[in-house]
Amino acid sequence: MNDFTDRLLETGLKEYSRVTPPDGLAGNIAATLAAKPPRRSRLAWAWMLAPAMACAAMVMMMRPGPLPTPPVMTFRPGPLPALTAVVGAKAGPAASNQPKLVAEVIHRRPRVQYRTLTAIELARLDFPAELLAPREDTPIADLTIKPLESANPPEGDKPNSKE
Amino acid sequence: MELETTLPGFLTHSAARPALDETAIVTEHQQMVYRIAYSVLRNPQDAADAAQETFLRVFRTAGRLAEIEDRKAWIARIAWNASLDCKRRSRAAAATVPVEDLVRGVEALRHTGRDPEEIAAGTELQRLLAQLIETLPENLRQPLQLSTVEELEYREIAVALGITEAAVRSRLFQARQRLKEKLESLWSKKS
Predict the structure, then answer these.
(1) B85 Cβ partners below 8 Å, 6+ apart?
(2) Which residue of B has its CA nearest to A44?
(3) Who has greater pLDDT, A143 or B148?
(4) Interchain proximity A29–B129, CB inside 8 Å
(5) Could you count the other beta carbons within 10 Å of the beta carbon of residue B55?
(6) Between residues 16 and 45 of chain A, which touch chain B (CB distance below 8 Å)?
(7) How far is CA B83 from CA B86, B126, B172, in A?
(8) Taking residues B84-103, what's their average pLDDT?
(9) A67-81, B1-15, B149-163: lowest mean pLDDT where?
């Protein structure tokens, strides 16, 4: 029985899908393919938009930030030499009598410098201004103590006593 | 430089694309595709419809066809998926003959002294096998169905199912063992 079953099963599985396509199947398929219009990929629109989006992204990335201000060059003449009349004196080198030009670079933007606050400045931040305003000290009047006035002064206190 | 030569092919008119020899591809693979569909659907008409659907899907992505190295395995995979989709869509259940009647018919042929090879080619055993294969779990049934298509090698079955070749061999062995056990239990019940 086992041998019979083995042979039966093996042959049966070989014949299981051993079928022949019906005549004309290839022709029907070819005709169906020819009749169907070509289908564009769903990604066609993505392909069209992708370059435009890439260019937009590049423009956004390459957009210039705030331009650095170029330094302004100014020429400020130096102090003029005292004019003295020299008779017969030989003229010195022309460059020594010429005003010296000093080039200064002036930055339009003031440079910000940071420093530590002093104690008084820190205190002024915490306390209102009127408390910290300098005040004039009020003069204190002299203290005078008047002696007590009475009819019977105490004996011990009499001046010039007999003892 | 013309625009058509720089854009991808599917953006231009179909006439400008390099034409694939669709007829040659259909002629070369139609038998394999039809047999794959028949192994699943067990109906000639449904198998023909599934084969047509397969080639429509194949040429829908014609741009990739030229890049694929193993075209046969790729088409087999599409045929397998198309056949399964057709089977799911098919609402009407195939008329099944009771198993006992089929076993009785095979036994009758055996008693006439016919060889197993002759009996195996008959309608009774093929129907019996189809019903027994449907009772197998899916992971064993699918490799067995594809293995009955003689055009497919184990490697191509593995590609179609998305498993390894070792898994195909292992599952085929288990599927045949189970079929053998079922057949022997039917013979023993009959006897």
Answers:
(1) B53
(2) B11
(3) B148
(4) no
(5) 25
(6) 16-22, 25-26, 28-30, 32-33, 36, 38-41, 43-44
(7) 5, 19, 20
(8) 76
(9) B1-15
A113 interfacial to chain B (CB closer than 8 Å): no
Do residues B149 and A14 lie in contact, with contact meaning Cβ atoms separated by under 8 Å? no
pTM of the model: 0.59
ipTM of the complex: 0.80
Residue A102 has φ and ψ, to the nearest 5°, of: -110, 120
Both tokens of A89, joined, read 């004196």
Q: b vs e for A25-36, b when ≥16 Cβ sit within 10 Å of the residue's Cβ?
A: bbeebbeebeee
Which residues make beta-bridge pairs with A72? A106
Q: Please count the other Cβ atoms lying within 10 Å of the Cβ belonging to residue B25.
A: 20
pLDDT value of position A99:
55
Mutation site for A-interface testing, chosen from B3, B13, B23, B118 by largest number of A Cβ within 10 Å: B23
Question: Hey, are the CB atoms on A17 and B110 less than 8 Å from each other?
Answer: no
Q: What is the largest CA-CA distance in chain A?
A: 171
**DSSP states of B60-101:** HTHHHHTT-S-HHHHHHHHHHHHHHHHHHH--SPPP---HHH
Whether the pLDDT of residue B1 is over 50: the answer is: no
Q: pLDDT, tens digit, for every residue of A86-112?
A: 444 455 555 455 555 555 555 566 677
